[in-house]
Amino acid sequence: MQRINKILTEQVQNIIKELYGADVPENQVQVNKTRKEFNGDFTIVVFPFLRFSKKSPEITAQEIGDALVKNMQDVEAYNVIKGFLNISLSDDYWKNFFNGIIGNDNYGFKEITENSNKIVIEYSSPNTNKPLHLGHIRNNLLGWSEAKIMEANGNKVIKVNLVNDRGIHICKSMLAWKELAGGKTPDDVKMKGDHFVGDYYVAFDKEYKKQIAELVANGMDEKEAKNEALWMKNARKMLQEWESGKPEVRNLWETMNNWVYAGFDETYKKLGVSFDKVYHESQTYLLGKDVILKALEDGKLQKREDGSIIIDLTKDGLDEKVLLRADGTALYMTQDIGTAILRYEDFNFNESAYVVGNEQDYHFKVLKIVLEKLGYVWAKNISHISYGMVELPDGKMKSREGTVVDADDLVDEMIKTAKQKSDELGKLESFSKEEKNEIFRKIALGALKYFILKVDAKKNMTFNPEESIDFNGNTGPFVQYTYVRIQSMLAKAKELGIKNIHKYNNSEKLEQTELSLLNLIYDFEDVIVEAGKRRNPSVIANYVFDLAKEFNRFYHEIPPILKEENKDLMKFRLSLSEKTAIIIKNALDLMGIEVPERM
RNA sequence: GGACCCGUAGCAUAACUGGAUAAUGCACUUGACUACGAAUCAAGCGAUUACAGGUUCGAAUCCUGUCGGGUUCACCA
Length: 599
Known about the structure:
- It is a single chain.
- By secondary structure, the protein is α/β, with parallel strands linked by helices.
- Among the domains are: about 5-90, Arginyl tRNA synthetase N-terminal domain (Gyrase A, domain 2); about 165-275, no CATH class; about 405-590, Isoleucyl-tRNA Synthetase, Domain 1.
- About 55% of the residues lie in helices and about 10% in strands.
- The protein contains 20 helices and 15 strands.
- It has helices at about 5-20, 50-55, 55-70, 90-100, 135-150, 170-180, 185-190, 195-215, 220-230, 230-245, 245-270, 280-295, 330-345, 360-375, 405-425, 435-455, 475-495, 510-535, 540-555, 565-590; strands at about 30-35, 40-45, 75-80, 85-90, 120, 155-165, 275-280, 300-305, 310, 320-325, 350-355, 380-385, 390, 395, 460.
- The strands form 4 sheets. Strands 7-6-5-11-12 form a 5-stranded parallel sheet, sandwiched between helices. A 4-stranded antiparallel sheet has the order 1-2-4-3.
- A hairpin with an 8-residue loop joins strand 1 and strand 2 (about 40-45).
- Helix 18 runs antiparallel to helix 19.
- It binds one RNA strand through helix 14, helix 15, strand 15, helix 17 and helix 19.
């Protein structure tokens, strides 16, 4: 079925042609949803047409309105306020629309076919030297949700993770563990592997600072001390040994990384995210090196006197960028070049998206230009889904200053709060402990995910650990509650022996709140498209909140549905409720949020 | 210093990307559970959209400048 806003746009174009003899391009016809405080379903802004009509806004709007009513059966009435033409569609239009989608549980979703666009999306990208924190949570949730939204728009999506598993930072944890752990493993001390390793990373930093202080106290200047501190020298040596493949170092590296992966897996599972493929930088940096050396031979890059290889981007408004160190070892950029190429070889994608924080805007700008200059035509299809930092009320999170919000702690805390809240309300007494825990988990994660995803991805957001995340108002649990409530009503309807709720013949005039609900349901298709275009799950969050709110209003304003004597009307309202629930569930799923059946 | 991003009620966020009287939640004040679940609903309070100019029929949104905050400009990742 063709969308009514599309039809309206075409009609307006035709009418203007007829009335004023002018061709108006499609993008000049603004068909918006009518704002709540005015009467109507869609609003057409007539200001852009005045130069064709050469008449006042009011008269122009009237002329167009008259023509619309005449030409379109679905247009029942219109009103004009200033230059705004508000169109009201007939009840029949809305009823027909609803009947058309009543059996379609995937309303709004596009199908994925053989010919679908193939998009690789990278997100998460952790370091293996410390556990995940709140910033990673935002990344993971965004990545997952973006992937879901891309799929809903009919794209074939491949989710990949790139683990940064090599470099000096890893050697720091390894060294500290060797020196301090006495051979203990995470199992021995009953810790999650990522936290275990992270602690040794912190321990390294502590000891390192101590060593610097000692050297400075003995008269060395600080810069030199930083280089000369024993542990730092040892860490650098370890990195060289790693690069040259010394078995002892490689074994330890593998062991400790595996501890970390086990910890990450647990956190990913808790968050409900997963990947189709995991890349490791230790496997891609050599490719990057080869590509750069080859490009140097081809004269695409320059070599400095000290032996480092650079690309000059000053003509592109950027800087000179080093691609390979003087000693020939790889850099972040080197690896990313290798990974990007490998990824193209693996998937032959139409598009490759990176979910990475906005502090790396510059890096990705450079990466794209460098790849283009190296002659990779597909590089133009690389995009950076840039998102803002998560800040604490007193500023940024800093791992070294201990002001991080740990991912595992936060989720556990949320689950505790959900349990407490639920116990106060006492609605789950009849459930087993396992069932209850499952419900608490869904609610807690619903609250957390919604809290993070409702904010425009590109904006920085503040998180106050002192105030726990809300469960009332514009929150995940509010939306979940609406869903649960509908399920409860539908179950009761079944108990009462009401069957075939999709079969009715409702001849009643639609109530205002029913019209609003139908309007919102109609919007879902456009919302998915917009969320995809804007690369922004917050569009979905805002929508599903409005939908839930409107349903709750409907629920309160309309007399009890299950007591309705007009069976046709009752079934229509049950169907409307059911459809609302399905869309809530689908919309939340796009954000990675599950719905409980009871709460 | 150069480049990029941001500044909206006490707080947290919206505003269909240039459209109507700037919306919602939290907090605060009221009212509604012997009618389908009150994690709900209804009502109230609260904004010179950082500031000053400009463009436009129309500006939170675009342009210029000022002030404030952030990120980046590493042979760190």
